[in-house]
Fold:
Amino acid sequence: MAIDTLRAVGYCAHYSKQGEWAFKYALNLSQRHSLRLNVFHFLADPYDPDDNTGKDLSPQERSQLAIEKERELRMYFDELAGDYLDVGFRLCFDNEWTELHRCLVIREFQVLVLGYINPEATFAGRKLTEFAESFISPVVLVGPNSPDEFYLNKPAGLIVPKLDLAKARWRSVETVLPQNN
Structure:
């Protein structure tokens, strides 16, 4: 996917230190380039393959849960965003890649930032690194051991100057993918 101009950064919310590191990177990237930062959050945690939150709820209960989660999320990330006002929040009902792909198609982001919780982390039903490498847009993983540790998928590797990452500060996601023997 060729990217001429970054217009928005996407960040998938996660309440962890790696999630905060990823948010801070996404926020800094947005601020430096005057971009919109869109925070995506989910009823069922895409990092947790066993989370079935909202699946067995009535439409009214599901709506109430969405309102509560949105309020909690906004309070948390509004504080982290500080004075930066160009931050949007979007609830994704599908915790698979399809809803994120729809957001990409309608240009809600051109680069996606995710917290890299640990080497075994999953996202949208797949190992996080495999998700990142297979996703069509640039993806930046932040962590798992420090806020200055970045892993980029192939599309992100093509736009490193736009991501404000010096070559020494990042590695390819391929370096942590299982090798086929």
Summary: The mean pLDDT is 89. Residues 14-104+123-176 form one domain. The helical segments are 17-33, 59-81, 97-105, 128-134, 154-157. The longest helix spans residues 59-81.
